[in-house]
Amino acid sequence: MSVPVLSLQAAELRRGGRSGPGLGPFNVQVSPGEQVAVLGPSGAGKSTLLKLMSGELAPTAGQVLLAGQPLAKRSPADRARRRAVLPQSQQVAFGLPVELVVGLGRWAGDSRRDDAHWVRQALAWAEAGHLHGRRYDQLSGGEQARVQMARVLAQLADVQDGLLMMDEPLASLDPGLQLALLGTLRRFCAERGHALVAVLHDIPQALNHFERLVLVHQGRVQADLPTGLAGRPAAELAASPAALPALERLFGLRLQAVALPQGGWALAARPLEAVA
Amino acid sequence: MDAPLEIRRARRPALPGWPFALLALAAAVVVAANSGAMDLGWADWQALMRGEASQGAQVLAQLRLPRVAFAVVVGASLGLAGALSQGLFRNPLADPSLLGIPGGAICAVALVLTVLSTWAGGLPAVWRPFVVPGAALAGAWLMCGLLQGVARWLAPGAVAGLLLSGLALNALAMAVVGLCTYLATDEQLRNLTFWQLGSLALANWPVVAVLAAGVAAVLGLSARWGQALNALALGEAVAAQVGVPVARLRRGLVLALAGLSGLAVAWCGLIGFIGLLAPHAARGLVGADARRVLPVSAWFGALLLLLADTVARTLVVPAELPVGILTALLGAPVLFVLLRRAQRDVGGGW
Predict the structure, then answer these.
(1) Looking at the partner chain, which of B237, B242, B246 has a beta carbon nearest the beta carbon of A104?
(2) Residue A69 domain-assigned (yes or no)
(3) Digit-coded pLDDT (tens) for B73-88
(4) A144 contact residues in B (CB cutoff 8 A)
(5) What confidence tens digit (pLDDT) does each residue in B136-192 have?
(6) What is the b/e burial string over B135-172, where b = at least 16 CB atoms within 10 angstroms of the residue's CB?
(7) ipTM beyond 0.85?
(8) Residues of A with CB below 8 A from B6's CB?
């Protein structure tokens, strides 16, 4: 088997003193090209897990390997050529123009020659081509989110077998855009062999578009299971009912998958009390 | 998976930038050098170029030109320091003088001039040209370091928090300066007042050369640093993720910032607000891209201080006003406007 693109080996984060029990230890491997959704209730530690994966936070014990090498041993530029990270908050000081923000994704790139091309291309992928030339600070929240997405796409546009990490990439977008961008993201990663790790809130999205679920609860991985999507054509909605019991436990819900006449599943959610 | 490309051409500035900027600066230099207690004109420049020893040529060569060059390099230093500081602290109001960085420098100079020189039985005259700038640099650098610590501890984007921390640190530095003033002898006191008011009266060519070298070095780095500062505008975490070596960058920026504003303080005392006004004007002229903001800030700072110094020299001839008073008169109202805008930009609350 090939070297995992990302590997957390007993990585934990203990904060000294009063601020809670900390997180981990995490043992998570991401294979090249794999598409992983991270789900869990608010405050479970999803974003912190992602920060541990991206190297924004260093583990207090254990280690994090990026393509077989400890993150700490790789230079910032080397890391940037292998993985891109879309954080949740997207503050930008000063009124930088959109194409400059996206172009920053090209910082570590090997050549400056194609930068302008990739910037335009990435904006188009993120359904934000029309924002070229605008000031970032004058955009709406949803537009800013797409510009930031374009930035990470530009970062990994011309490399292979990388890793894309996103913290709620679709949170502030319209439903139509969410689906379009999910499709674009998956194609973008599949064409380049990139693995995709995304923190999500939406259960159907995770089941229908990702191969694997990592369920996080109280700072630990509660379950790590396939959705049954792997190997199927990308366009097919293919939520597997097999993952439902674990999701029910995670969120304290009753979930019911209903087979649709045109193929795939629709998901109905009810609170636990309503059933009892 | 090629989505349709919608391309909008970026706006281009109407005027060709560089020639115009240099021309404007050259014109300002000539006008500034011509004005003063004695009005000079084209004839005196011709005399100077022919190497004649006329009175006008003498005044030009020995008084006006060093002074004007000094104003240009100090203004450029302050403008550039302001742009670096705003980028480093990700804050459009982070003017070095508002953050107390020159305050730290003055504090160190005051300590050296009074306590140390009294204790060491007077500072040998030979050492003075090195000890004072050295102390100013160290003081500015220490203050930058303290502010860095405070800024990292504050919430990102906490405009007021950073300014108030600068205020507190500045108050501390000024308390030390006050103590030194209290302990100082009459002669030491005159020296200290010079630093607190800010003046370009000590103009001389070696100092101009040192400052010019500093400005040139930072401008030379500004293509690379400019893009790094742009990345920093997205936050330190994002900057690190796109590949910027953030810790190294921060050390370099702090050193350059302390160098530019510390050295300016060492030779001309406290000249405030240039570091606030210049980057703002630069952003208004060429947009927020730091690769352009850095050189344009230097240019605008030079122009601004040249103007202010010329007014300071000519307003009450034959005496002259400390230029720091003039820049404060000019800068304080602008600060009010910017504060109001900053408050509006972050939705009313800080």
Answers:
(1) B242
(2) yes
(3) 999 999 999 999 999 8
(4) none
(5) 999 999 998 888 887 777 665 566 677 788 888 889 998 998 888 888 887 777 777
(6) bbbbbbbbbbebbbebbeebeeebbbbbbebbeebbeb
(7) yes
(8) 124, 129-130, 132
Q: pTM of the predicted model, to two decimals?
A: 0.86
**C-beta atoms of B237 and A87 within 8 A:** yes
List the CATH number of the domain containing B206.
1.10.3470.10
pLDDT at residue number A230 = 55
Give the distance from residue A212's alpha carbon to the nearest chain B alpha carbon, in angstroms: 24
Domain that holds residue B202: 66-343
pLDDT at B79: 95
**What average pLDDT does the segment B311-330 reach?**
86
C-alpha pair distances (Å), A161 with each of A112, A193, A211, B2, B277? 21, 5, 17, 20, 47
What would the pLDDT profile of B237-260 be if each residue is shown by its tens digit? 899 999 999 889 988 998 999 999
CB A138 within 8 A of CB A173: no
Number of structural domains found in chain B: 1
Interface of chain A toward chain B, CB-CB under 8 angstroms: 54-56, 75-77, 79-81, 84-85, 87, 89-97, 99-101, 104-105, 107-108, 120-121, 124-125, 127, 129-130, 132-133, 135, 137, 151, 155, 184, 187-188, 191
- Quote the domain boundaries for residue A42: 6-275
Q: How many domains does chain A have?
A: 1
Rounded CA-CA distance B139/B149 in Å is 16
- Which CATH number characterizes residue A156's domain? 3.40.50.300
**What pLDDT shows up at residue B348?**
35
Residue A253's CB: how many other CB atoms inside 10 A?
16
Do residues A221 and A26 lie in contact, with contact meaning Cβ atoms separated by under 8 Å? yes
